From TrEMBL:
Compartment(s): Endomembrane system
Any Pfam family: Far-17a_AIG1
PANTHER family, alphabetized: ANDROGEN-DEPENDENT TFPI-REGULATING PROTEIN, ANDROGEN-INDUCED PROTEIN 1-RELATED
Main location: membrane
Identification of the protein by name: Androgen-dependent TFPI-regulating protein
Family of this protein: Belongs to the AIG1 family.
GO cellular component terms given for this protein: endomembrane system; membrane
Amino acid sequence: MATPRFGWKSCLCVHAAVFTWYVFTLWRNCSLEITAKHPGAQTYGGRWKYLTFINLVMQTVFFGICVLTDLAHVAVSVKSARGGLPALLSQIGDFYFSVLAFPVATFVFSSFWVLYSYDRELVYPKFIDQIIPTWLNHALHTIILPLILLQMYLQPHKYPSRLKGILSLALFSVVYLAWVLWVHHISGIWVYPIMARLSSTGLTLFLGVAAFSMVPLYLLGEKLYQVMWRAADGGGGKGAQKKKK
């Protein structure tokens, strides 16, 4: 990661606050009170079959990496930060942000609210309101987007080559879809209600569209990054970003 807009100490304060929020949200989501009432949490795969929960864990880990990166840069001189642990943590954070944190958070936000607006029973049945508080629903599906956009604004990132980035994201998508199909194969349970209502052809199309939609979200992240950092980079938004292939 290149130098943040407002310095490493300011960035550390923001990252520590966001990381604490995600830890609290994760703890609340996994509380015994919710686990005992949520039918999906008690079936095969538990919460790990839901992309929303996987994203929650991913965001928590990502902002944890951000905190460690900030601490490493604050603790050493600018010259020393160009190598060693600070540089390694920056490289990990850059790749994690561009390939997973931004695309997956954006996908969870957009897919959930599109389906919810059309017919909430397809993705979030009404009885869930009696189990998951409204604030927690927004923490899982809404606040994730402004927080990841805030991170993009605060700190520049080095994107990998476009081919490497998209292939890495595609691998994640394939693994998750394989996991969803495996859960159904073993338990007969579809992770999301909409899948149970689709024909074989419809299900194939649905999964295909869901997987391929990750690509434009990755490209959206690139474009937004360039727009946010064009002025800071002196034009073009490429100062902290590798040339795309």
